[in-house]
Amino acid sequence: MTAAKYHFISGLPRSGSTLLAALLLQNPRFHAGMTSPVGTLYTSILHQFGAGTEFGPVITKAERKRLVRGLFDSYYAEHADKSVVFDTNRMWTAHLPMLMDQFPDSKVIACVRNVAWVMDSIERKYAADPYEITRLFNDDNERATVYSRVETLALRNRMVGYPWAALKSAFYSEHAGSMLLIDYDLLAQAPQKVLPLIYDFIGAEPFEHDFQNIQYDAPEFDAPLGMRGLHKVRPAVSFEARDTILPPDLFQQYSQLSFWKDTAGSRANVITAKFVASDAVQPDHSGK
Fold first, then answer.
1. Structure confidence by residue, pLDDT tens digits, 87-109
2. What span, in angstroms and rounded, lies between the C-alpha atoms of 86 and 106?
3. 242: helix, strand or coil
4. Cα distance between residue 92 and residue 39, in whole Å
């Protein structure tokens, strides 16, 4: 049996990665899902054989490479019948050199969104359950107000700041050509245009998806975080326009962080939304 081909889903939180995985999962040739533990396992074993460790001097580079590859193959052994496996983790954009060394032909699909709307989405989830204290924040000072919550999430080692910084680093790296960035607004408004572009990017045969009948939820993962419904996908793909619940100054501040709108200096492939006079959405697939 031919080994499955690996591709990766990464990018910003609350930007459509779970929706994308739910859609890809409709294809019987594919396996996809929410964040897997493979990334965490990878960083854990790095600490076991890295410089200064007991085993670092005796484990060769070839052995390290086999150990890392074994994580992927062992974890996804139950899906050996699939031709393509998508592993999801926001950390992958920080580890492109390893991914490209292990899987030279692999692609990274990075979901992006105006960071102000990412913050708005998380704040809405927080406000929806006033009788819960989410584990996204370490103490009462961090969760005290919308300002402290947003500023905490934006730190470079936290839920939004880390993947944003990792994505920006990858966007300008030598491996950027292996990445395809997808704007959440376009995915939600025109999935029938976005999915064929993804299939073309990864070199897969087309598949007809059902955008009105989607099933995905992970309550067992969300409940311990104190953030219920974080990974629940609506039954149909749709875009819901709304007003932000962030103060205007916060919304303005975080709206300025969409670096992917300017592809100068990057080899990354970007799909963005362009509104024409008729209000139709047209995909703009650009890349150097």
1. 999 999 999 999 999 999 999 99
2. 10
3. coil
4. 7
